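Before a computer can learn anything about folding, someone has to put a protein's shape into writing. The outcome of that step, for a single protein, is printed below:
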Amino acid sequence: MRILSPSKKLLLTITTIAFTHNINAQEQNLTLNQDPKFEQLLNEKRKINTSINTNDTYRIQIFSGKSDEAKKTLSDFKRENSNIDGTIIFNTPNYKVIVGNFKTRIEAEKNLAEIKRRYKTVFLLKPGK
């Protein structure tokens, strides 16, 4: 390590101050040009999302397993029970077939008893699950 003489230290300090004096942070204004339809689409999506209440109803899980089997199970269920909605949800590593949208536990348990006759691994999902 070299030791600088006092005059060289002063010269180096002044040079450093001179160079850093003109350094500024980024002061750039950003202008975003966005299609007005994008904001309309976001508003529509927000309306739809607030109207979907999946956490306040009872549902029934009728299958958990591979994708192809889940699709077949849902298809068979919809053919037999056209008045009950159903969907497939992926929850690593399984695909789950969830059916129904029951407001009361009594209604859900009544349907659960009927569905149990046809499907083996059936159980009730409480709201918020």
About this structure: Strands lie at 58-65, 86-91, 94-102, 123-125. The chain has a mean pLDDT of 85. The two ends are 66 Å apart (CA to CA).
